[in-house]
Amino acid sequence: MAENATAQLSGPGGAIPDISINPSTIISALLLLAIAYVAVRVAVFLLSWLSERAYEHRITVKMAIPITKLAIYGFAIYHILSSVAPLSTNQLIAFSGLAGAAIGFGLKDLVAEVVGGVVIVLDKPYHVGDKVRIDDQYGEVTDIGLRATRLVTPDDNLVTVSNQRVLNQTVANANAGSLEMQVVIDLFIDSGSDAPKAMKILREAAVTSKYVYISNKRPVTILMRDHPFYTMVRARVYVNDIRYEFKFETDVTKRAWEAFKSEGIEPPKAGVVDLGGGPAAGGG
Amino acid sequence: MPPPFKEEMELIEKAIKDFEEGKRRNIAVISDPFYGESELLEWVWERAGGGALKVKAGSLKEEFEILERSSAKIAIVEEAHRLYLRKIGGFDLMDRFINFVSSSSERLFITTWNSFSWKYLDEVLGIGQHFPMKIELPGMDAGKIRDMLLSGYEEGELTFLEEEEDETEEPKILKRSSFKISLLGERIEIPRPEVDLSSIRSRFHKGEEKRPPMEIFFGKLARISDGNPGVAELLWKEALDYPEVRNSLIDLPSIDLDLDDSFALNVILSMGSVDLADLSEVLEPTGTSAERAAALLEERGLVEIDGEVVSLRAEALKRTAEHLRRARLVW
């Protein structure tokens, strides 16, 4: 008989109902997980769709995606444990032992990744939509899953970084939930050229760009650094949408160089600029 | 039918008196396009008598020396935002003006600015610090707009017609739409529902039918004009067919433009109207054709092109500002 084949474990005093792990219980649990999966996909699709139409609130809407996923899966697991397969104290102890052994032997990494995912959602070192650098990979966060975080790099590569690895890495977040982010634009000119004029032009190229964002908290800063054979002029300026980061840089550089040429500002002589970790590539 | 400007006149009056007593506070009158602030400047000029110089900023582009040569104690500069162009080298004249304002300690400057240009220039050049008295002309509510527009008419002189509804076409809240995805190399069209916000709004306002037609008309006029008296006056003239007033005001739909065309629209909004040549100077370096952009914006009903001048359409002001804020071109 099927009922005899099921595990019968009684709670102390028989107050807590016994669990019957039969095919029906397993199917119910699997069905619930499948429903949760579909619900997550639908919720992610709807929130992503909505965020793209929310213009300036895009990232705010996207922040809800990982929380929604966690909530749906959390509810599904809670429902399985509380309704479909309620556990008594003894069963819970037995299950914990089994789970501990399983985690210790084979699922350690998976559990660490899931815990990492929960920590990322709660601690918020970054959100979906942010531009981050993790593990030498730079790109826009497209998904924070329970197991891994996904980035799309500027070259349109999808990079998957496990959540456990994220927690052990230094994470650089360029915009931290804002739609605007700082872009650093370096231009190198010959030492003999008019550097103050170049700074003025670079500033005007930045503030007139269609991609620029300026406010009290997001000012435009123009810096100059002199080197033996060339001068670096640097703009620290904010782009109005992180997705335009490279277009912004290109627009400012192109128009600034056109103006440099018409004002007789020359590029450095060949071979004098050190871009490989020298002072020019450092902070300004 | 300009707005009464009562409070603004008092503020300017006080600033002029303070100036006469030795305390200078330059004034920036800041308003959205079409507001009608030139009436206020006219009053200031008359108030100042022969001791004031009144110039349009456009004429300073041709001959800045007008300002430098003048010995007038009060300088009224209209549309001061016309002293810049959003391009490399486009701030030189504005810099010169600001330097002149700062260095002319014995002269009071009363200036008017397009609000969108003002916000931009305040972030870029910090012009606000040179004009300690900022008078931002506020939006007007339906009651004030009604009082302003009906001030020249007797009570009961005009008949407000009720809005005629098209019974054959009931607006639907949920519309059928679709999107395409690629699956196994095939383009598949997937239907999806789309919510029509304007129909929700119109249903929400259905209760207004019980209100008098005049009240409905001015409520709608205030909403569409965003409280801008100049825009309201233009729409009023279109609706007025003396002695009847047709309630045929139409709320423009939301604007959908790409970034290049939105930027062109932003340049036009920041000036109110702009020469095609100036628009071209701003857009050409970014790779956008001014003629093409202006033609597209005209086709969308957002601007009008009159010869070589591209102007924002008054009824498009509210939607344009909303769109540009969403696109983060206006901060």
Topology:
The complex is a heterodimer of chains A (284) and B (331).
Chain A: H1 2-5, H2 23-52, H3 58-62, H4 64-84, H5 89-123, E1 131-134, E2 137-144, E3 148-152, E4 158-162, H6 163-168, E5 171-173, E6 181-190, H7 195-207, E7 212-213, E8 221-226, E9 230-239, H8 245-262
Antiparallel strand pairs in A: 1-2, 1-5, 2-3, 3-4, 6-9, 7-9, 8-9
Chain B: H1 6-20, E1 27-31, H2 38-48, E2 52-56, H3 57-62, H4 65-69, E3 74-78, H5 92-103, E4 108-114, H6 115-124, E5 133-136, H7 142-149, E6 159-160, E7 174-183, E8 186-195, H8 197-204, H9 213-225, H10 229-239, E9 240-241, E10 244-245, H11 259-271, E11 273-275, H12 276-283, H13 290-299, E12 303-306, E13 309-312, H14 317-326
Parallel strand pairs in B: 1-4, 1-5, 2-3, 3-4, 6-10
Antiparallel strand pairs in B: 7-8, 9-10, 11-13, 12-13
Helix pairs in contact in B: 1-2, 7-9, 9-10, 11-13, 11-14
Walk me through this protein's architecture.
The complex is a heterodimer of chains A (284) and B (331). Chain A is α+β, with helices and mostly antiparallel strands. Chain A has a five-stranded antiparallel β-sheet. In chain A, strands 6, 7, 8 and 9 form a four-stranded antiparallel β-sheet that branches. In chain A, a hairpin with a 3-residue loop joins strand 8 and strand 9. The longest helix of chain A has 35 residues. The termini of chain A are far apart. The N terminus and C terminus of chain A are likely disordered. Chain B is of the alpha/beta class and 331 residues long. Chains A and B meet through helix 7 and helix 8 of A and helix 11 of B.
